[in-house]
Description:
Largest sheet: none
Shape: globular
Helix content: over 70%
Number of domains: 1
Oligomer: single chain
Amino acid sequence: MPYSETxxxxxxxxxxxxRQARFRAWVLVVVPVVALIFQAxxxxxxxxxxxxxxxxxxxxxxxxxxxxxxNGILVGCGMGLAQDALAHNPLGMYGICKTLVGFFAAxxxxxxxxxxxxxxxxxxxxxxxxxxxxxxxxxxxxxxxLIDFDWQQTLILSGFNAVVGLALFHFxxxxxxxx
Length: 179
């Protein structure tokens, strides 16, 4: 019986092209810096944007597109530690959370086709919830902060971040290096 590729086969075989996404050096520097500046300063002028975690979305995107868990760890660690420094949190809280998100996002990017919009949307939702839960867990365990985890708000905000993430990912796709 002849082999026919289904949509499920396309989603699971991300390495048909055989290589990772390539970006110019300026993209790998400017995009994270802009995301961190946005994260730190824009909510001061428009507080509802404090719920948008651009640093997390950039971490997810670059980790998934580079298809390398080591690159995912480095991106997540760098973004998280820089966010800690700008947000006046204990150094390492966002660093640990975003490092783990970067590792898991890159691991997923190795196994499935992350260029599909549904996969990207689902990844943003799952990683946002994971990030928020891990941050809450570490705040309770390491900092002894007795705060509640609001599942309903987290799920709503994960949807908001995922929709913004889809638009951001589409824009960032246009910045890929054309070979």
